[in-house]
Amino acid sequence: MPTEVHGQGDLPEIDLDIAISHVGTAWEVLRGQNIFITGGTGFVGKWLLATLKHARQAHQLNCRTTILSRHPDNFARDYSFMDPTWMKLCKGDVRNFTFPQGEHAVVIHAATDVARQSNSKDMLETCGAGTERVLAFAKQAHAKKFHLVSSGAVYGRQPNDMSAMPESYSWSDSATEDLDAYTLGKRQAELLTRNAQSQSACEFTI
User: Fold this and answer.
1) Rounded Cα distance, 150 and 167, in Å
2) What is the pTM of this model?
3) CA pair distance 189, 126, nearest whole angstrom
4) Residue 149 DSSP label
5) How many CB atoms sit inside 10 A of residue 98's CB?
6) pLDDT digit string (tens) for the chain, length 206 residues
7) I want to staple 39 with a disulfide (CB 3.0 to 4.6 A). Which of 11, 45, 187, 200 is the partner?
8) What angle do CA 144, 188, 124 make, to 5 degrees?
9) Cβ distance 106 to 145 under 8 Å?
10) How far apart, in whole angstroms, are the C-alpha atoms of residue 24 and residue 111?
């Protein structure tokens, strides 16, 4: 049966099967773990949770997830496959949320304030102060893995003489003038995450 993601239609089971197969044995790091997710109520986050739910069932992972949301009641109502037996909603803003209790071995930070068409100030604060707050929570929660969901927007505008941007392209070399708040905010979030990596035994990925 397809999984319905509110506002995005049905996700065919074959697509979810392909998604979890690409991850392969890496799903094992989630077995029996507590996971903390920001941005889980956004466009990418809902797909992430749908895939996680499918993988949890397919691999019997028995993981538990805490999802940060500014409006958890709305999310619980609209999110058709919300499962309270292993999904817990935590009310708060990513910039100043109260830390959930207990250890969380995996932290996935995907929050960026784009859905509300926020102004530049809100965007930069969500990316900057929000990332700092989530990094602080990961430290308190004794996280073993921290993953920042970033964007290709960090590379800035593609040069006219470049047919495609390689992953090795250094956005530090690109000009910062005329870049939008989303690009600057994502760059800040990546820098904060890289800086945290040098001060922690936690494994950080972007």
Assistant:
1) 13
2) 0.87
3) 9
4) -
5) 9
6) 555 554 444 678 899 999 999 999 999 999 999 999 999 888 888 889 999 999 999 999 999 999 999 988 888 887 777 899 999 999 999 999 999 999 999 999 998 765 555 678 888 888 999 999 999 999 999 999 999 999 888 887 777 888 887 777 776 655 555 678 888 889 999 999 999 988 888 999 99
7) 45
8) 115
9) yes
10) 25
- The separation between the first and the last C-alpha atoms of the chain, rounded to the nearest angstrom, is 32
- The amino acid sitting at 30 is L
Alpha carbon 119 to its chain centroid, in Å, reads 21
Neighbours of 10 (CB within 10 A): 12
Where do we find the tokens 């397919």? 58
β-sheet bridge partners, residue 204? 146
Tokens in use for 99? 């830390």
The three-class DSSP label of residue 115 is coil
Residue matched to tokens 């949301």: 69
Contacts of 163 (CB under 8 A, 6+ apart): none
Alpha helices in 71-119 (DSSP H): 72-78
Report how far apart, in Å, the C-alpha atoms of 9 and of each of 6, 33, 80 are.
Answer: 6, 29, 11
Tokens found for residue 127: 């990316």
Q: What gap in Å lies between CA 29 and CA 20, rounded to an integer?
A: 14
Using CA atoms, how far apart are residues 8 and 130, in angstroms rounded to an integer?
26
